[in-house]
Design a protein that fits this description.
578 residues, alpha+beta, 6-stranded antiparallel sheet, two-stranded antiparallel sheet, 16 helices, 8 strands, 59% helix, flat
């Protein structure tokens, strides 16, 4: 490695590591502030909190990596320009592109690392983080009694303690308990002089002991008779004294329960590229199934007007129909124990043999048919043959009496010549409403699946776009730092925040337009990267020309040039002739 490459890499790697950690810390705090109320007061140990923070820190990598590249490249080349090192390099005959070359190759490695993190680490971290956060939300707050305040953490109980003793955490003084386990209001009250509260059986249960108190129970008196009025019934009050009373409560809801992660892994942010492809394929098949069911059920909806309809299925729907019919015609093979022969449905095998042109090339199970099952079906086939003979005889008689076209004509004429009744009109209207609602539901289902398909497609492209954003940010930061020639965290930090806001706003608006079907998914997701890439090429061109974009003289010279072009040209004076 040449000394120039080492100098440039040393100037970039140090600020990159520091800025990456700082950006991750800032984004982590911003994300955790949203769940602050769900975490505080739950009595979580440091291991659980550490896991939660670690997973959310990995989850911020797609956003932190491009911002860290932009800020570190600004700082590195700003320091080189501020200390005239970049000027000395250029005076030696080395171009700016040669100076950018080692960091550019390092940025390519960072892009690959960002892609690996976005595709593998971030989905796994998101699954772990949100499943753990869900378990934390389901956990009840820690059991903590405060003096003079009612505690309602225990189900159907409200407990108030007047005094607690620091030397003995289990001892309580002046206890008031409202028992709501019967769901009849504040009609059972317990007042005790003192008490103790502690856990038993490995903190699985809470034991609550009360001493020297009274139990007040308020309830309706017994009914006096059949003819008595409800206004005559009066409330009764029962008071019982006790020397010691005990309650045992289950603390399972106060423990952190682990939920199976399979209930969360269907979310798009928890899927990698391969899983997203599988999900989009499934959604596409659902859309094709709905469209195919519409085409297949259309003759039933409009059984009279669709007789001469020549509307054909779209090609993708027809191909899906052929595929679905070929799958449905395969023989059913039941699951069997290892070492035994699978059980094959003989009727399905017959259907597969009948549709050989359709299922050609698909696996068949003709040789595995059970001979006993075939024999058992022979009586049923004989009955079908006799029925066919009987029906064929009837049709021959009908053909001898009336031809089929005359029968159909008489039937249609008899229907059209019938007088319309209220019931017939109401039935036709009900059928039209049913058809309309079914079509609306089918269209809504197709729209919902297409929206989900777009969302998954956006996530698929975001995994790639957020990785390539590192290159676009480098093309902005490095030339801009060479132009500004200011190191430190002052000007570079402000400039990086400005371009990050531009990147975030363009990306958010592009995704919104893609979800609204205004633009394509590719254009919506990659729009921010393309815009920043063009801005970076503009800054690179200006840096190679040593343009002073952030100096007042540069704009004053440009303004003078514009004024000269807009100023009216003086008229030429012709010489007078004598």
């Amino acid at each position: 490695m040449k000394k120039l490459d080492k100098l440039v890499l040393d100037a970039f790697i140090g600020p990159f590591v520091i800025t990456f950690l700082v950006v991750v810390f800032i984004l982590l705090n911003i994300n955790m502030l949203k769940y602050f109320d769900d975490i505080i007061g739950k009595g979580l140990d440091w291991w659980v909190l550490g896991r939660l923070f670690f997973y959310f820190a990995i989850f911020t990598i797609p956003t932190a990596m491009p911002l860290a590249v932009l800020l570190s490249s600004l700082i590195a080349f700003g320091n080189l320009g501020e200390h005239f090192e970049l000027t000395a390099i250029k005076s030696a005959g080395i171009s700016l592109l040669r100076v950018l070359q080692p960091i550019f190759f390092f940025i390519l490695l960072l892009t690959l690392a960002a892609f690996h993190a976005n595709n593998n680490m971030v989905p796994r971290a998101a699954l772990e983080a949100y499943s753990l956060l869900y378990d934390i939300k389901q956990k009840k707050p820690a059991l903590e009694l405060r003096e003079g305040e009612f505690y309602r953490g225990i189900d159907n109980m409200s407990i108030k303690v007047n005094k607690k003793f620091p030397k003995d955490e289990q001892a309580l003084k002046g206890v008031l308990v409202y028992d709501h386990r019967k769901n009849n209001g504040n009609k059972e009250v317990i007042v005790a002089d003192s008490g103790r509260m502690y856990t038993i059986l490995n903190d699985r249960y809470l034991k609550f002991e009360l001493y020297n108190g009274f139990n007040y129970t308020e309830g309706a008196a017994a009914q006096r008779g059949v003819g008595s009025r409800s206004n005559d019934q009066k409330e009764s009050l029962t008071r019982s004294q006790f020397a010691k009373s005990q309650f045992v409560f289950d603390l399972s809801s106060f423990q952190l329960q682990t939920t199976d992660k399979k209930w969360f892994q269907g979310n798009r942010i928890m899927r990698n590229l391969g899983e997203l492809n599988s999900d989009m394929d499934s959604l596409n098949r659902e859309v094709l199934n709905l469209r195919l069911n519409h085409f297949l059920g259309r003759p039933d909806y409009f059984n009279f007007y669709t007789r001469g309809d020549s509307l054909m299925m779209p090609r993708d729907v027809y191909e899906h129909k052929v595929y679905r019919d070929s799958i449905s015609s395969l023989p059913y093979v039941a699951r069997s124990k290892p070492g035994t022969q699978p059980v094959v449905d003989s009727a399905a095998v017959k259907l597969a043999n009948a549709n050989k042109p359709l299922v050609q090339g698909l696996p068949a199970a003709k040789n595995a048919v059970d001979s006993q099952a075939v024999k058992s079906e022979q009586p049923a086939t004989k009955q079908k043959q006799t029925r066919r003979k009987a029906t064929s005889g009837k049709t021959r008689k009908l053909k001898t009496l009336y031809p089929l076209d005359q029968l159909a004509k008489r039937k249609v004429d008899s229907v059209h010549n019938m007088a319309l009744t209220r019931e017939m009109i109401q039935g036709a209207a009900n059928k039209a409403r049913t058809i309309k609602s079914q079509l609306i539901n089918a269209n809504d289902g197709i729209d919902n699946f297409k929206t989900e398909l777009i969302i998954f497609d956006i996530q698929w492209h975001k995994i790639l776009a957020s990785s390539f954003a590192c290159i676009a940010m480098f093309l902005i930061g490095a030339p801009l730092g060479a132009i500004i020639k200011k190191g430190g965290l002052g000007v570079p930090f402000l400039v990086s925040i400005l371009f990050f806001i531009i990147y975030y706003v363009i990306g958010m608006q592009g995704e919104k337009l893609a979800k609204q079907h205004t633009i394509s998914v590719i254009a919506g997701v990659w729009l921010a990267d393309v815009v920043l890439f063009l801005i970076g090429l503009f800054f690179l061109k200006q840096a190679r020309r040593d343009a002073r974009l952030f100096e007042a003289d540069f704009y004053s010279v440009m303004l003078d040039k514009v004024k000269r072009r807009l100023a009216p040209k003086p008229k030429s004076v012709e010489p007078s002739t004598v």
